[in-house]
Amino acid sequence: MHLAADALVLSARAHGEHGAVVRGFTRDDGVRPGYVRGGHSRRLRPSLQPGNVVRGDWRARSDEQLAALTVELVHSRAPLFAQPLPAAAIEWLCALTAGALPEAQPYPRLHDALAAVFDAIEAAPSAQGWAGSVARYELLLLAELGFGLDLSGCTVTGARDDLAYVSPRSGAAVSRAGALGYEARLLALPPFLLSGGVASWDEVLAALALTGHFLARDVLVDRRRDLLAARERLVARLARAVA
Asked: E strand or H helix at 116, and its extent?
């Protein structure tokens, strides 16, 4: 097996005295693990920061064997880890992607979306400029894994406008008219998830509550405690930013 491709670094776990097992997210070949000799050394560790873009070269005798991986740094996002909100967002998104996606299966839409979120985190002057894109990425990941929400119309009335809620059981949208009297039992559906645009802080937190419910129920069933801790740190920091 030989693969050469650019990849987003998702994780780098120390292995042995100086090595590291690295998971990279390639556009056409999905999540690919590899052993980087010296990956835990001072020289290579900065290149393997989650969120970085590297040019990777994976080589193995078979697809079942952990590949030997060599990397060349293409783009570093290490400076973002000096800021609490960007650091928490990148940590969570990388952990989610590495933990939720099966290895060696292509998810080009997710790869492009994740790269776009990281670009937004770098470019936006404040967290409000990129926070909504975290929820959008989570929504896309749910869809790509077969757990997509049905936001095309109201599951009660069939109406396609004034959609304001989502059923926590079915994942289907509900209009204001269809939700009358049952609002407290439903999850809020922020307008920006349907129409795009920059979200208010209240909308961001509502969107994260929505996607978080379905991620915990459908995707992270066996790894809720480990992975959702990173998400809880991000949501807590965003909530403090609002306050």
From this structure: helix 108-123
